[in-house]
Design a protein that fits this description.
Layout lengths: L2 E5 L2 E4 L4 E8 L8 E6 L6 E7 L3 E4 L7 E6 L4 E6 L8 E7 L2 E2 L3 E6 L1
Parallel strand pairs: 2-11
Antiparallel strand pairs: 1-3, 3-8, 4-5, 4-9, 5-6, 7-8, 9-10, 9-11
């Protein structure tokens, strides 16, 4: 059974940093891409970063240079390091693998 459990969200001031974690089980990171999405209030869910063995990493333009995706294959955990956070980064962040989703973790950036 595939399970994705996110953690690490919270309240942070603009310019600050957070690291999100996604603990994965039930699949191999080598099989398909794993990534992060986010959904802000009143907006559609959008992909922000993903990684795969074949294609490497991808970032949405709005987070390039600020966010970094990484994985620990021993711990089967995917991380999203978020630096220089902006108000517009406020959203619920979701870990995604194929059609599987985590429960989401709230990130709130304050001024």
């Amino acid at each position: 059974e595939v399970q994705l459990v996110e953690s690490g969200g919270g309240l942070v001031q603009a310019g600050g940093s957070l690291r999100l974690s996604c603990a994965a089980s039930g699949f191999s990171f080598d099989d398909y891409a794993i990534g992060w999405f986010r959904q802000a209030p009143g907006k559609e869910r959008e992909g922000i970063s993903c990684m795969s063995k074949e294609d490497g990493t991808w970032y949405r333009d709005s987070v390039k240079g600020r966010f970094t995706i990484a994985s620990d294959n021993v711990k089967k955990t995917v991380y999203l390091q978020m630096n220089s956070l902006k108000l517009e980064d406020t959203a619920v962040y979701y870990c995604n693998y194929g059609h599987y989703w985590g429960q989401g973790t709230q990130v709130t950036v304050s001024s």
